[in-house]
């Protein structure tokens, strides 16, 4: 990256507002906000962090929030990577890959064995980033889920036990 970026946990109301704003932008561009989206975006501390997950915030040198990702606890050793986006002004500099790696590292450090995600083929750039990080396509049955976002036509997983420790940094 050309400018220095810091990735850290959510810790202020301004961070929560940026998480909401950045995600609303891409979701409404491609899809329709669901009640589940509204809950997660409007109450990240209660819907993600209090349930054993984390929201990671990427900030530029000037302190502006330029990217976000949620790591949601879904069961023992299982985390969902969700609500990842990079502001349009910061795209093309490797920040999406950095956010993915930070989420993988966080999941591993918090006892994760598996990270999975749902995405859509409309988001081809995101799918390329996930594949570059080692995620492989999977199915709802293989993940043991009963239901998932209707807009997710592509499910992916990364088994952390198969990664060497240096891959998660």
From TrEMBL:
The keyword Transferase appears for this protein: yes
Any Pfam family: Acetyltransf_1
Highest taxon of source: Bacteria
Domain N-acetyltransferase: 5-161
SUPFAM superfamilies, alphabetized: Acyl-CoA N-acyltransferases (Nat)
UniProt keyword terms in alphabetical order: Transferase
Protein name (database record): N-acetyltransferase domain-containing protein
